[in-house]
Design a protein that fits this description.
Layout: E1 11-14, E2 17-20, H1 26-38, H2 44-55, H3 58-64, H4 73-87, H5 89-124
Antiparallel strand pairs: 1-2
């Protein structure tokens, strides 16, 4: 069995500008954990900003949110959600591939069970099939 280890680079486009999303490394995972710890007990939007700084970089966050306390929190939430979704892109691709392989492996069993259920239903209704 060949294991594909190629991991795609991920970019997001926000309001016409493209930003590269950080790779999912141990350092990035640790930085996200640290951000969550620093923001514990603070408003949710502070965590969003801290996570975006890890995932896009502080410069990108300054460009995206130049208005400080006048920033729209709904807009911030949309950007945060989209970036997190992009950050999980490679993980989702692996999960979808595994699910597809599982469906393919189970297809013959599903066909057999479907035929068995039809035969049992026919038998129950007094219908016998002559071979």
């Amino acid at each position: 069995m060949r294991i594909d280890t190629e991991v795609d680079r991920v970019f997001v486009e926000i309001e016409g500008s493209e930003y590269e999303v950080a790779e999912k490394t141990v350092a990035v995972a640790d930085a996200l954990i640290d951000a969550a710890a620093r923001c514990d007990g603070k408003p949710q939007y502070r965590l969003w900003i801290a996570e975006l700084e890890v995932l896009l970089g502080a410069d990108a966050v300054r460009r995206l949110f130049p208005d400080g306390k006048r920033e729209n929190i709904d807009r911030m939430q949309r950007i945060h959600a989209g970036v997190l979704e992009a950050f999980e892109y490679n993980s989702r691709a692996v999960q979808e591939h595994a699910a597809q392989r599982q469906r393919e492996a189970l297809a013959p069993m599903n066909d057999f069970l479907r035929q068995l259920a039809q035969a049992m239903n026919a038998e129950k209704n007094g219908i016998r099939r002559i071979k």
